[in-house]
Amino acid sequence: MVLSNEIQSVPKTLAEFLLWEPNDGFKYEWNDGELIKFEGMNKKQVYIYDVLAKLFSRKGLFESGSLVAEYDTMLSGIQMRRPDIAYLTNEQIQLTKKNQDVIPKFVIEIISETDQFYKIEDKITEYFKAGVKVIWNIVPEHKLVYIYTSRKTVRICSDNDICSAEPVLPDFAIAVNDIFTEE
Q1: Each residue of 27-40: pLDDT tens digit?
Q2: Are 70 and 166 in contact (CB under 8 A)?
């Protein structure tokens, strides 16, 4: 007799995780043996992604690369994260075509109400250790953007402050209010 609610086995190694196909509707990250469950982008996050992707396109930045949603990023031999948005250069995209892992130089996390502060801090540390150069943490509930260019250098932007992806993408800049403007 087959039960309709079969229990799915959970991966115990990174290799198992990379082959694993979860069937529970959630997405997962892997951090040194820890399976981290999260939901995909919600409607508010998709809207923000759309605003940023349109800006990226209008600025003609697609000539140099792409903004990718929830890109599987191997930060180290024991960590696979999925930033909400990652910028990959055309060269990096060609490397992924050859099944090579690449580290985006610019990532964006859209912080949800359920994200825990210390987990966000862990990710920032991991991203910089892996070679990310710019991190935006967008906090929709407070209409804030935290721009990190190192673990110790952060700029908090609100209202009409300009968020820039310098030095990775100097032409990718937007006012905080424009990120949250309803079209």
Answers
A1: 777 777 777 766 66
A2: no
Helix (H) or strand (E) run with residue 80 in it: strand 79-81
R_g of the chain, CA atoms, integer Å: 17
Cα separation, 79 vs 59, whole angstroms: 33
Pairing relationship of beta strands 134-139 and 106-110 according to DSSP bridges = parallel
Of 111, 98, 108, nearest to 134 (Cα)?
108
- The whole-angstrom separation of Cα 28 and Cα 147 is 25
Using CA atoms, how far apart are residues 71 and 154, in angstroms rounded to an integer?
24
In this predicted model, what pLDDT tens digit does every residue of 61-116 receive, in sequence order? Answer: 989 999 999 998 988 877 888 899 999 999 999 999 999 999 999 999 999 888 88
Give the global pTM: 0.82
**DSSP conformational letter for 161:** P
